[in-house]
Amino acid sequence: MRIKKRLSALLIALIGLMSGYAPSAAQEELSHVAFGIHFGPNTDVSADWVMQLGVDWVKVYTIGSAYAFRGKRILYRFDMGYPENWEQFRQAIAEKARAIAAAPIDAVEIHNEPNLSHEWGGRPPNAWQYVQMLRVAYTTIKRIKPSLIVVSGGLAPTITTPNRMAVDDLEYAREMFENGAADYFDAFGYHPYGYNLPPEADPFGAQPLVFRRTERIRALMESYGIYKQIWLTEFGWLRDPREDGFQCSNYDPAFTGFAWMAVSGKQQADYLVRAFEYARQNWPWAGPMFVWNMNWQQMDWLAPCDHMRWFGLLRHNGEPTPAYYALQRMRRYPISYLPRLWLVSDAMTAEISLFCPQRLKLGSFTVHNIGYPASLELNVLPVNIGQLFVEVEPPRPRLGQPVTVYVNALDLKSPGKYPVYINVRTIINGRAVSQSVQGYVIAWHREGSC
Fold first, then answer.
1. 200 and 305, same structural domain?
2. Which PANTHER family match (predicted)?
3. What is the CATH number of the domain that holds 242?
């Protein structure tokens, strides 16, 4: 038998439409991108500022803060240090996970910017160590509350410094994936700050640290077969302090390295709104986006020129910035909190001689969820019509598990191009969803060795 397989990759994008179901115009306006904001603890800023902003999500830093935002979804930042005693670490994680599970918290971000040394108490960042912590946190949280969404700690966009106290986010992510991190998060966290350029700036331009660097992170994920959502758990632009009468410069220790990032308040407002729209239109794999921040200007213990203050949506006197009003007026779309199927297949095409028809491996594909994190039960059903008998293994795969397609061509009698269809079915929000992948067997009247 002489079989020729094409090795080119075929990506089949599936929209997740219901079988026999056409979406209405209103449903087509659903957005996968939700609007979130950071709200810091220990200030006298009222939660009303968040509620009036019209956000979908709030990222909080204490479990108690989760109770202040009734009707909003909550992401909790779970900070941790590298353990000296792993058993004590597991016990501490379990205790904290039980407290999180009892609170109105929807998702947990495991640590923050683990590719920077200052998030490790001055230790050099180590992706292998972080993945071990992520693994313990993920498995413990899922044992206590399976429905809680676990987001990996958002990586900081940066370059590797000579002393490796900061590690390039792409390099760090690669090391995470090499060490099996994809099994231990429901969504990948990332912090795509825009620095001083607009959100549409080319990530392959002279300045690579831009909002769209997220696309490079996505390409890296897909190269490892990872198709889970990316959550932008922190992003924003730094407003020029001079607009409020503060002369902050690189000579100020609290502002060193940040002066060049400053944009006007009008630009900050414009860039934030455009970032949401860009992600909605171009990133079907993006999830909630959390603007950094609401109220760091009201943290009296910070130096007046501390850079964290100048990302805030409130001024030092408590008045809203132009960015606050722009986000408040930003067009809203109903949010889809549903999974979305995505099939990735090889060419699924083989050639066979009619002189020696046999059972052959046609190819393989995987089923992924690029939408909101959820557990799905999948059924893979080959369509057996005509002279080909199609089999799949396994018939009930997990998300991301390869499905191999076999074709029995013993009954083929004449040359031609024979289509092969495989249906993938699941239930989403109580509705049956069916998508398909297609391949071909090309039969020839060709003599010669098999």
1. yes
2. ALPHA-L-IDURONIDASE (PTHR12631), BETA-XYLOSIDASE-LIKE PROTEIN-RELATED (PTHR12631:SF10)
3. 3.20.20.80
The pair phi, psi for residue 258, each rounded to 5°, is: -120, -15
As for how many domains the chain has, the answer is 2
195 occurs within a structural domain: yes
The domain in which residue 302 lies consists of: 31-329
Which residues lie across from 436 on neighbouring strands?
Answer: 423
Domain limit, last residue, from 329, 364, 382:
329
Are residues 250 and 357 both part of a single domain? no
17 in a structural domain: no
Are 217 and 298 within one domain?
A: yes
> What is the pLDDT, as a whole number, of residue 278?
98
* Distance in angstroms (rounded) separating the CA atoms of residues 172 and 175: 5
CA distances, 44 to each of 180, 290, 295 (Å): 42, 21, 9
Task: Give the model's pLDDT for residue 450.
Answer: 60
Asked whether the beta carbons of 169 and 116 are under 8 A apart, the reply is no
pLDDT in tens, 269-287: 999 999 999 999 999 999 9
Residue 305, CA distances (Å) to 129, 158, 196, 262, 291 in order: 34, 22, 18, 12, 20
CATH number at residue 435: 2.60.40.2910
* Residues in the chain, pLDDT under 70: 1-28, 446-450
Q: Residues 231, 291: one domain?
A: yes
Count other Cβ atoms within 10 Å, centred on residue 9: 9
pTM for this prediction: 0.91
